[in-house]
Amino acid sequence: MEGMSTIVKKITQLVAGLIFMYGIYIIMHGHISPGGGFAGGAIVAGAFILLILAFGSSALNLKKEVGGSSNTESVAILMVAVLALMALIFGAKVFLFNFLPKGTPGELLSAGVIPLYNLFIGIEVAGAILTIFLALVIFKEESSK
Amino acid sequence: MELTISIILGFMIIGAIYALHAKDLLSAVVAMGFVGYGLVVCFLLLKAPDLAIVQIVVETITLVLMIAVVLDSTRDEITVKPDRRAFFQRIAGFIIFAGLLYFFVLAIANLDPLGEHSLRMSESYVNGAAEKTGSVNLVTGVLFDFRAFDTLGEAVILYTAALGVLTLLRMKGKK
Amino acid sequence: MTVYILCFVLFLVGLYGVLTRRNLIKIAISLSIMEFSIFLILVLIGYIENGIAPILDPGRADQVYVDPLPQAMVLTAIVIGLATTAMLMAIAIRLYRKYKTFDIREIRNLRG
After folding, report:
1. What is the 3-class SS of chain B, one letter each residue?
2. In this prediction, does ipTM exceed 0.85?
3. Distance (Å) from the C-alpha of residue C11 to the closest C-alpha of chain B?
């Protein structure tokens, strides 16, 4: 599919980086303010979807993109499983236990293992939504040739 | 609060009924988006900011996916000529729905009015949450510490959906 | 109480759509509408009058918070709804490529 007009391309170049930073902010501050892994991951995926819609699919190498996004989401969910299994070794030896030190509530480095869960689940959600969208774009490209 | 949410629900019901009877598929998809965004306003009024953020972004992504599918295929709705059997089926359907509504009114008769303390388990979740989990956001603490197994299951569901879409939309093989 | 009954009416509108519509896209839309009504019922049960959003405020000791448990359940359910709708859309576009229609009765008759 072809891209959009020049105004949309210029505005997207300015705004997509800000949306990406906002998504990372919502992921990392998930234990202090509203948000968390799922909301932040969806916002990061939204930034990439905006780039693809504005510049058209002819500006990308689609097979490489979908390979990259599906590898990223696989690594992220593997890290979630590794973190959950590491709690079997440290702490109270229970699956999915919160074994890192808790700290004072309200700081950025607090709440034990929750910020790490937020980060990896955020990357996983962003990768999954991007993979779904790219699979649809590739299907439309190949079936219209 | 009840009056405001009832008015917004009224608009959502009208939008949903239009989404079912629209003659153009694109109008139906936009009406579904209207219902979703009305839900965001309801979540904000019910003091649930986490849910409002997730619902607004997920609704936008769903709209993009559905419009991509609808614009690539047909936009026409299938027209069906109504006959006598359909009329009687519709009357029977409405009677069954009225019966379901009656049973629902019986089922919620013991529910407290809107705004009272309804659930008992949340006392133990709210009172010691800051010391037990260390997070100030109670919803994140419940999701990732007390109920982390459900969150793991949800991450696996999203991963499986991405895998399923990749498998379904392959162009190799027989046409 | 009228709020719960209106939510159930929205659920019944979605159920009517799933049962009677012949277009696959409209079935997917009605399924989403049913899910929305259930989200609203769950969050309505957990609402407490004069409560604030469930972010702990260390300044005040006895502040009433809105119930966080139904909100955690609905957060999971929203993402699962997205996964279901994405798979339905993939199936729909695949079916359209093969049968050139979204009508479920035609697709059932054409057993290929």
Report:
1. CHHHHHHHHHHHHHHHHHHHHCCEHHHHHHHHHHHHHHHHHHHHHCCCHHHHHHHHHHHHHHHHHHHHHHHCCCCECCCCCCCHHHHHHHHHHHHHHHHHHHHHHHHHHHCCCCECCCCCCHHHHHHCHHHHHCCCEHHHHHHHHHCHHHHHHHHHHHHHHHHHHHHHCCCCCCC
2. yes
3. 9
